[in-house]
Amino acid sequence: MSPRQPRRDGGAHPRRDRGGDRTNPRNAPLGGGGVRNELFCQLLADRGLVVRAGPTEATATGNLLTQAVAAGSLPDLETGRRLVESTMEIATYEPATADGWDEAMKKLRALRSSS
Questions:
Q1: What values do phi and psi take at 67, rounded to 5?
Q2: CA geometry: angle at 80 spanning 78 and 82, to 5°?
Q3: Is 42 domain-assigned?
Q4: Beta carbons of 74 and 80 less than 8 angstroms apart
Q5: pLDDT tens-digit profile of 39-95?
Q6: Which terminus of the chain, N or C, has less C-beta within 10 A?
Q7: C-alpha distances out from residue 63 to 35, 79, 80, Å
Q8: What is residue 3's predicted lDDT score, i.e. its pLDDT?
Q9: Where are any strands of DSSP class E within the chain?
Q10: Can you give the CATH number for the domain in which 74 is found?
Q11: What is the mean pLDDT of residues 94-113?
């Protein structure tokens, strides 16, 4: 993997969604402790994103997969991703509503314009 390619081993980067369109910027994979917060994940999804949340230990898991590929235990990272998805909890949050966000933005704009 060259340094200019997008990171694909975890983290909160809009990148290839593990289960769907891998080029859609509306997919937001998240990893790490923040994925335990269901409200956070749903609020993010309600901004029009499909959030794939998990694994909680994304950094350690990505490190382990990278080492497994380097040692020849796994053929490539894509195989590792499939292994993670089939053995670890990955939750999907889809947009429910954006109404609350739209109303909040109207209030914020009104406050800004009045000051």
A1: -65, -35
A2: 75
A3: yes
A4: yes
A5: 999 988 888 889 999 999 999 999 999 999 999 999 999 999 899 989 999 999 998
A6: C
A7: 18, 14, 11
A8: 36
A9: 27-30, 50-53, 91-93
A10: 3.30.420.40
A11: 81
| H helix or E strand, kind and range, residue 101 | helix 99-114
Name the amino acid, one letter, at 105. M
What is the spatial distance between Cα 15 and Cα 5, in angstroms, rounded to a whole number? Answer: 10
First to last CA, the chain: 49
Q: What's the Cα-to-Cα distance from 8 to each of 42, 67, 99, rounded to whole Å?
A: 22, 15, 32
In a domain, 76, yes or no: yes
- Which residues, in sequence order, are CB contacts of 33 under 8 Å at separation 6+? 56
Q: What band does 27 get if pLDDT is binned at 50, 70 and 90? A: confident
Nearest to 28 by CA among 11, 47, 14: 14
Count: domains in the chain: 1
- How far, rounded to the nearest angstrom, does the alpha carbon of residue 65 sit from its chain's CA centroid? 18
Residue 109 identity (one-letter amino acid): R
